[in-house]
Predict the 3D structure of the following.
Amino acid sequence: MYTFIEMKALQFPLVRITLCFVFGIIFSQITKPNLTLVIILLCLGIVSLLFYYFKNKNDLIQKPFFGVTSLCTAFLLGVFTLCISNQTLNKNHYLHQVKETENEISTELIIKEKLKNTLNNDRYVTEMILLNGKKSYGKIILNIRKDSVLPAIEIGSHLMVDGSFYKNRKPSNPNQFDYGKYLENQQIYAQIYADVTDIKTNPIVDKSISYYASKLRNRIIQNLEKNNFNKTELSVVIALILGQQQDIAQEVIRDYQYAGAIHVLSVSGLHVGCILLFVTFLLTPIPNTKRGSILKLVLVILSLWTFGILAGLAPSVVRSVTMFSFVAVGMFLRRSINIYNTLLVSALLILLVKPSFLFDIGFQLSYVALFFIVWLQPLLTSIWTPENKIVKYFWDIITVSFAAQIGTFPLSIYYFHQFPGLFFITNIVILPGLSVILGIGVIVMILAAFNVVWIPMMKLLEWSIWLLNKIISWVASFEDFIFKDLSLNSYMMWFWYLVIIGIILWFKKPTFKKLAFSMIAIIGLQLVTMYAKYDSQKNSEFIVFSKRKVTMITERQGNKVTLYSNDSILKTTDDNLALKSYLVANFCKIEKKQNLSNLYYFKNKKILLIDSNAVFINEEKPDILLLTNSPKVNLERLFQSWKPQQIVVDANNYKTYIKLWRETCRKEKTPFHDTSEKGFFKL
């Protein structure tokens, strides 16, 4: 039965169109095609479809030309949609207005979203409207330094800011998470840093839906705080229901990560799905007649979007609410269209509006998890059918959890390089009560929005969250079951999916072809894994990392790495994210740890390190000169006795020194590499 449904899903024309549309977005992201050419080709495709439609409207499905042209047009539409979503095409975008040499700017911004603060800055997503007195456009992050008291800033506030402008940069260190690329997928291309004294507030307030959602959230939080809702539990409730993680303690986030429950703290498909189940349960008394089903559907969709507004209509929230709105339509109207088509149509609608969502980790994990729940969970439940209802309830939870984890674990390892081994225990414990917690939480929030706090229900919610945190902390304490630093490249990830899909297909209906496909996928996975390790074995490199306040150098021979650094770094390598990212990505490990030395030899190159001690021998005559920890050296004088091929300075130097050294190298026509500007140095 399920195999039949799967085949019908693939034959449904809109599914093929959606897949071609997705491929078009991917193609556009990789190739960056010419927009004019794309528009011409898309117009030709649309004209061809219209011409063929009016000429052969009675017999379209059987005509291969119409089908192929439809798929090609969908592909081009995907390419076009991503191209035009690029805000930098606007002539007033700030990237076209800021000169390369310009750093200090004067601008007017509208606050759009509050981000999680860093140690030194309060952070906001803003929309630029004026730049140096001229009309401007584009999203940009505002960082306000915490060196003075910051007055409350509301969503929608207009701010006049004099600050330092910095474009997104590539990762400073090898194999590091590309935060700049992540921001670009959200149409954010730069950041501004400013002091409170450089900011003036305009009395004008942009009263958008985000403004009213923010006011509502603030009122809810203030009312709960007035009634002494515990701060730790309140921060989790705010994340769980309102989608705001800014105030959660780092230890709490770490526990949820280790327990395999980090998705609980981010409003996602899990939360919206729980709300859907909870509301559906409350609407059980309404009869399943035609009118009753329509009434249920309207109430469910209203409930979902009310929850979305409470959560601030963040992109992840809008995505999840849209997806489950389509699921609700399928549930209550009982259309013949299967759930696979429903999922893909919801994805198509979302990507038509926001094509960059395709590259969002949350979007990928949400849809993959839900697809595997729909596809795999029935197979898992068929293994055993408990007669006891309670046992069956928990068995369903286990199968749903396993289906989602099997589907998402290649993606999770690829992005996060770790896997919580006790995820099934976590889900067994928390999922049964999560719908109830969310239901109680939403009721408490709605009452608080109307300045009503029912103390017994508030305390019940507070106690539930306290218990949830304790359970999560207990599961996270079993660190031996947390598999960390797992290496997985993109090729290995795709072959893992081929293996998983092949095995599931074979279990559903064993045939020789499916078995052969599974075996080929397993062999392919082994081959790409072996090649990745072989490629790591044959490579060697010398890297100067870009780190402030410390000097860090690695020398790699195959999968063995020698680390040179200060004592503090040598003792805390397990907590060094830059180093861990490098080791995991290159399938290697630290073989030796040594203190910094003044002289290194690598690939027939002599590398002389000069630090604050400024100890060196004139006769050395290095090929590469490495300056770190702000040594007091006269570079011009050194050039008189040496002729180094290149000067390298790391981020552990005074900026004034770096400026002088750069100017000297320019005069001497010698390559100059500043890791604080260009990122790590690799030899």
